[in-house]
Amino acid sequence: MSDKTVTITDNATGKQSEAPVRSGTHGPDLVDIRSLHSDLGYFTYDPGYSSTGCCQSDITFIDGDQGVLLYRGYPIEQLAEQSSFVEVSYLLLNGELPDKRQLEQFDDTITRHTLVNESLRIFFNGFHHDAHPMAMLTGVVGSLSAFYHDTIDINDPESRMLSAHRIIAKMPTIAAASFKHMVGEPFVHPQNRLSYTGNLLNMLFARPSEEYEINPVAEKALDQLLILHADHEQNASTSTVRMAGSTGTNPFAAIASGCAALWGPAHGGANEAVLNMLSEIGTVDQVPRFIEKAKDKNDPFRLMGFGHRVYKNYDPRATIIRKTCHEVLDELGVANDPQLELAMKLEEIALADDYFVERKLYPNVDFYSGIIYRALGIPTEFFTVLFAIGRTPGWIAQWIEMLEDPEQRISRPRQLYTGAARRDYTPLHRRN
User: pTM here?
Assistant: First the structure.
């Protein structure tokens, strides 16, 4: 808390409320308006909470104007290039990077929790063959509480961390099972000898009839994407996890609520929208025409995967994954895929076009992640599931932080009521 204050004056009555100003390590100061209602009788109005700080957090910092993303103070560029998703998960959960022994122990713990109860696997038989994989993921993650209800004590730090380990470990297993159910293939059990990301690839693509060889370029690319998606401050799904968790619900239900929020096309479905846009454009020769349509304010067409609501300069995650994207395309030899060829042409033209350069409408992480997933042979409807796997350690870290915050109370947003004024009930026989 700084010594600064802001005085809010009610011009109608002359009454005033003095609000303290809270300062963080980075970023703009926040005005603490908790006494506003008791002092002046007002609440604030902020649809979408885009100007409201709902919590204080030590986990992630974003400076959209400068293109900065930090996990626990570490730049995303350094983590994506030098770290691993398992190590980043440890960092988000514990606040510091692990030493060699701690990392090995954490990795071993995650590995030992990857199996799911066989009864849980039967749940998938209840889903229709063409069920959306996010529907399966959301439902099955929520059902984990039925299997671990005896060890869920959200007030016990050890119990919270055990739940964290279980969720991070089992998310790829559940996701892969939803994938196999979707494509009509038998489930593949996790292999303890494989890395976290290698295990995910194996469970997705291995078949009983043949060996699956994990491509190290694909493994690195997927691991990097999971790192880039691991946390992103107070976005819609993270705030949903915090809000659900504030009621005291179990961690599996809280994470399931995050999955449901992430499913939305304006959030986790953005990279899916990129592939849908490419399908709409159709062929490379149509790119110039659609570029012009994107420039026309009166045309409903929009380039998906360009620019970002938060990053006003350049998405730092896109800088990293652009290089990896081209490495994947070269390694996997998918240059003859018409849609990927179209994506690369669109990137080339947009990066050179003054209209997009001046407005800083650069390709973002959703653009490149969609292309990578496509190159790996992952169906479009499964993209958001992979996003959920990556975001899981961030959700869990935010959930734990919320529970440990002494200022945290149950979330209870206010509203501006604009409905009918109080009126009396009219008996049915008297209504016209």
Answer: 0.89
